[in-house]
Amino acid sequence: MITLKGENIYLRALEPEDLEFVHAVENDESIWDVSNTQTPFSKFLIKQYIENAHKDIYEVKQLRLVISSYNEKPLGMIDIFDFDFKNSRAGIGILVKDKENRGKGTGTEALKLLVSYCFNQLNLHQLYCNISEDNKVSIKMFEKQGFKQVGLKKDWNYINNSYKNEYLFQLLNKQDVH
C-alpha cells in the first residue's frame, strides 16, 4: 500500500514476529505515563492481541501499526483508537521506542503517513490526540502536522506524586466534503 510508505519508514500491520518488540514496548515502565499503563502485560496476552490484530477497524474500533525502517527494524508503533464511524473521527497515539531513534523525524514521518491514511482512505473528518503538558516534543510534532490545541484537562493524570495537565489537540480534514 503506497499510502503507508514514506521516504525513510513505512507503517505495517503487526506480525507474529513482533511479539518481543511489542512486549518490550508495553512493559517499558519509563513510558507508562505516556500510554496510561499501570501493570505489565504478559507475552501470552500480547500474543493473543497480535493474533487478533487482523480484525477490521470498523469491528474493533482501533488499528495498531508498526513503524518500520526499510531494513525491517521495528522503530515504534502508531495507533488509531476510539474509531468512531458515525462521527467520522478517531484518536491517534504514537511512540518511537528507543531514544536513539527519536529526534530524527521518524515520528513526524509516521504521523504524516497516518494522517494521510485516515483522511484519504478512511475518509475521516477529524483526528485528535491527548498530550501531557510537559511532553514538548509530541506537542511540537503534532502542531507541525497542523493539529491545534483545543482544550486543557486540568490535573488530568497523576504521575510521580503530582497531577499533570493534559492538552487535547485536534485536526480537521480540510478536504472533507461532508
Automatic annotation (TrEMBL):
Domain (N-acetyltransferase) ranges: 9-174
Transmembrane segments: none
PROSITE patterns: GNAT
MF annotations from Gene Ontology: acyltransferase activity, transferring groups other than amino-acyl groups
Keywords on record: Transferase
Superkingdom of origin organism: Bacteria
Record-linked InterPro entries: Acyl_CoA_acyltransferase, GNAT_dom
Claim: Transferase is one of the keywords in the record: yes
Name used for this protein in its record: GNAT family N-acetyltransferase
